[in-house]
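Aggregate trends can hide what the representation actually does to any particular protein. This step matters because it turns folding into a mapping between discrete strings. For completeness, the protein is quoted in full, as a sequence line and a line of structure tokens:
=====
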Amino acid sequence: MRRRLAPEDRQLEIVEAAERLLAARGAQVRVEDVVAEAGAAKGTFFRYFPVWDDLLEAIRRRTFARWTERYAPPAAGAETAAWSSTLETLVQAFVDFTLSQRQLHAVLFHSDFASRRPLAPQAGAVGQLETLIRAGQAAGAFAPCDPRLTASYLFAVMHEAADQAADGADRSYVIEGAAALLRRVLVPGDAP
């Protein structure tokens, strides 16, 4: 006998089932797999998500919300030392968060879905990093630079650190190296 749930609870149940399956199995997951995992009917799935990309979009929004909960930048009035130390915290949080997503990360950010539904320029990790750089510059803690371009480059460094850790490199070593690079770019007087 099927359980009666409020519509928002049933929708969440479908999203959570899809997240579990996509994290474990990646892009091979299909609607039939999700509804079986959620204990829902296929028609129920399509009531909430008319196309597969709508489901992936909902999951991507939840992923960004979880990231935002996990990593908070320093407050506007924080001292320079707090801004400098936050860079290692940022890299560590990004690497750990990316690794925790397992195959879900590839589905959301490196698949055909990501091409069909690209992120807005200010959305996502690059946009958040740009905001962090601007705030650090306003606080006098970060060196002058083009925040958008620098955010793109530094995101590539963080992403490579996550890729290296996923491929078996020493997690602490790659985090330390990436954080040192971020500090050299952003923190005045931290250059070699």
The chain has a mean pLDDT of 89. Residues 80-101 form the longest helix (22 residues). The radius of gyration is 19 Å.
